[in-house]
Q: What sequence folds into this?
């Protein structure tokens, strides 16, 4: 079994970060490699067993199942169902840990995965998931959360006089 671990401190409160991560179907809203994501019809994105379908920006498709979800502990676990990677028994965990100083100005995000490589010791796959999936995803999550909220604007219903 191979394991990949990426951990980073984000300058955002744990509840704010968890809100984005916990929206299991909305990963395309923050992960730069995911072009589209959706839940299968009728699924509740916090219910273990729900399935998300992903399309990467280069057109590959993946299907992932939510294995467990704990809003209080801010942890979700998901596993590959269908994917193009040379691994089996892939299971990943995303965990958000509140700032230990009690001010909740930052948090730690841990993204880990365990899997069986189809060949070799898994170092190539471990490097890929850490360097090409998890790290860019967490950097992008930080960037999305750092953006000021866009005010809601209502389109004008009149046109300018000529």
A:
């Amino acid at each position: 079994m191979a394991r990949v671990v990426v951990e980073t401190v984000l300058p955002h409160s744990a509840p704010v970060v968890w809100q984005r991560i916990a929206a299991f179907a909305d990963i395309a809203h923050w992960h730069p490699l995911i072009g589209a994501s959706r839940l299968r019809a009728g699924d509740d994105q916090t219910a273990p067993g729900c399935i998300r379908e992903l399309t990467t920006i280069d057109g590959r498709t993946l299907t992932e199942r939510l294995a467990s979800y704990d809003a209080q502990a801010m942890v979700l676990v998901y596993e590959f169902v269908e994917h193009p990677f040379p691994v089996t028994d892939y299971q990943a965990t995303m965990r958000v840990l509140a700032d230990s100083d009690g001010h909740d100005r930052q948090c730690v995000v841990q993204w880990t995965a365990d899997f069986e490589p189809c060949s070799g010791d898994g170092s190539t796959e471990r490097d890929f998931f850490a360097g090409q999936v998890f790290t860019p995803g967490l950097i992008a999550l930080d960037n999305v959360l750092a953006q000021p909220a866009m005010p809601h604007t209502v389109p004008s219903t009149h046109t300018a006089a000529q």
Observations:
- The chain has one domain: 2-146.
- The first strand starts at residue 2 and ends at 10.
